[in-house]
Design a protein that fits this description.
There is one protein chain. Helix content is 32%, strand content 24%. The longest helix is centred in the N-terminal third of the chain and has 17 residues. With 523 residues, it is α/β, with parallel strands linked by helices. The chain has 17 helices and 25 strands. The strands form six sheets. A nine-stranded mixed beta sheet has the order 2-1-10-9-11-12-13-14-15, with helices on both faces. It has a four-stranded parallel beta sheet with strand order 4-3-5-6. A four-stranded antiparallel beta sheet has the order 16-17-19-20. It folds into two domains: 408 residues, 3-Layer(aba) Sandwich (Rossmann fold), CATH 3.40.50; 96 residues, 2-Layer Sandwich (GMP Synthetase, Chain A, domain 3), CATH 3.30.300.
Length: 523
């Protein structure tokens, strides 16, 4: 039995254990305010949430949303709601009113915490909801960067007793309702249990050898599964701490490292690209940072190597999915065992590659090196999509395998490689072209900061290739230069038909490029 399976399997049990060992230890540090939330303070926030629900006359498990930037209260609401026995529903700050209205209605959320900064955004979404949904939801305006009023009432022992007196939670109790980014349709809500979240968090903690002395710097939003399960719950179960700025800042990043002394940093490839292209600022090495964890999107090998050389921090590339409480693949902790251009080995899950062209319920498992759909199975899998049995049946096979929609293959060492999304695959003249291959070739051009390829309609080939390009600050280049570069790197057939220079690429909250939106915005 793994360490993840033998560790506490509810978030309340985890917090109670910390109260017995280190109640005054820091859990969240907010760099903008300097406030620190201890584990005892987190327990008091959890009890405040439980009391507030009761004060509203709600005597059942409640779905509680929050629309807040990272910081003291976002972390307290994310974890505290689940500890209190209710279901946490983080709301995406980047949502348009129609998307947010859909989530508010579909999630059965009854309470939403927000700050005055986001009140207008929430009201715009509520105005689009039907009367029953708008009447159901209670809104509470709070200070997102300060503790709740009266949050110093309990001693350690009285907090433990008060938590024990709350309605019980179990391994299979629903805890988190996390919505996908909805790039190909309306967002879907993945419902996770205490057991799934604890298993995933303990797996990450064990994989990265986290201890109570470890501290992570992460600016990834708490409305995204990476920010929740990797940057928040993994430190939580290991008894460590989090430096949680409101958002990423290229100018402040390394000063945060020097001031708060994290032992690891949680990033996405976009952050790595911007740190590498920030001039000489922060170019010193940081030997006290044990590693950087990069996930949520593929990390180009050239940027991976450049970051390690420049900052002296080894990068562990990984991959997660909302439907699996984030963690699915990860490179080994031992630097000599890692590989570039791969999210790594199965991490707490079973994995396989199947023939996605096959019809019927049984899809043949492919041999090593063959590209097919990645499928996953494990204790961290979601219960299903909330209030959507039809989409759940499509996503999860009868024997419990999640159809990820990702294309990839397994090598002879057991490492998995992701080549793209099935829905984003470019099919030109009957030949499958992975957009990532074109991205990586373009990123080798000295003037290119970011690139994303996507298939566009073509009367002769069915599809051809559009490449969207973000240039490095202060440089210019021509389409002819990019075309010549692609012809050399990719050959004529895979060279994009069109190049479009853009200020930024459309991305989801994790930094993953949303390629299909490039087609929507095409002139």
């Amino acid at each position: 039995m793994s360490a993840a399976q033998t560790a506490p399997q509810t978030l309340r049990a985890v917090l109670t254990a910390h109260l017995g060992l280190q109640p005054s230890a820091p859990f969240v540090i907010a760099p903008e305010t300097g406030l620190t939330q201890t584990y005892l303070a987190l327990s008091e926030e959890s009890l405040n949430i439980a009391s507030f629900v009761i004060s509203l006359g709600i005597d059942k498990r409640c779905h509680i949303g929050f629309l807040l930037h990272n910081g003291y209260q976002a972390a307290a609401l994310l974890v505290g709601t689940m500890v209190a026995g209710h279901v946490s529903v983080p709301l995406n700050l980047l949502s348009q009113p129609t998307q947010l209205a859909h989530v508010l209605a579909q999630s059965d959320v009854e309470i939403v915490f927000t700050s005055s900064h986001y009140e207008r955004q929430l009201n715009a979404a509520l105005a689009l909801c039907d009367a029953a949904t708008a009447a159901r939801i209670r809104v509470r305006i709070i200070d997102s960067d300060a503790p709740s009023p009266g949050c110093e009432r309990h001693s350690t022992q009285s907090a433990i007793a008060a938590l024990d007196a709350l309605p019980p939670v179990a391994t299979d109790t629903p805890a988190l309702l996390m919505y996908t980014s909805g790039t190909t349709g309306k967002p879907k809500g993945a419902l996770m249990t205490h057991g799934a979240l604890c298993y995933a968090a303990h797996t990450v903690a064990a994989w990265h050898e986290l201890t109570p002395q470890d501290r992570v710097l992460s600016s990834l939003p708490l409305y995204h599964i990476n920010g929740q399960c990797i940057a928040t719950l993994a430190p939580f179960v290991s008894g460590g701490s989090i430096v949680a700025p409101h958002k990423f800042s290229v100018s402040a990043w390394w000063s945060w490292v020097e001031t708060f002394k994290p032992t690891w940093i949680n990033v996405v490839p976009t952050i790595i690209a911007y740190l590498l292209n920030a001039g000489d600022e922060g170019a010193k090495q940081f030997p006290d940072v044990r590693f950087a964890r990069s996930a949520s999107a593929p990390l180009p090998p050239d940027q991976h190597r450049a970051f390690e050389r420049r900052f002296g921090i080894g990068v562990i590339e990984a991959m997660g999915m909302t439907e699996c409480a984030s963690v699915v693949f990860c490179n080994p902790h031992l630097a000599s065992a890692r590989k570039y251009a791969t999210p790594g080995l199965p991490c707490g899950v079973e994995a396989r590659v199947v023939d996605h062209h096959a019809t019927g319920d049984i899809q043949p498992v492919l041999e090593n090196g063959k590209v097919g759909e990645l499928q996953l199975r494990g204790p961290n899998l979601m219960l299903g999509y909330y209030n959507d049995a039809a989409k759940t049946r499509v996503a999860i096979t009868a024997d419990g395998w999640l159809r990820t929609g990702d294309l990839g293959y397994r090598d002879d060492d057991g490492f998995y490689f992701v080549t793209g999304r099935i829905k984003e695959l470019i099919i030109k003249g009957g030949e499958n072209i992975a957009p990532r291959e074109i991205d990586e070739a373009l990123l080798m051009h000295p003037d290119v900061l970011e690139a994303a390829a996507v298939g566009i309609p073509d009367k002769d080939y069915g599809q051809d290739i559009l490449a969207a390009i973000v240039l490095k600050p202060g440089v210019t280049t021509s389409e002819a230069s990019l075309r010549a570069h692609c012809l050399e790197q990719l050959g004529k057939y895979k060279t994009p038909r069109e190049f479009r220079f853009v200020a930024e690429l459309p991305k989801g909250p994790s930094g993953k490029v949303q390629r299909l939106k490039l087609i929507e915005t095409q002139a």
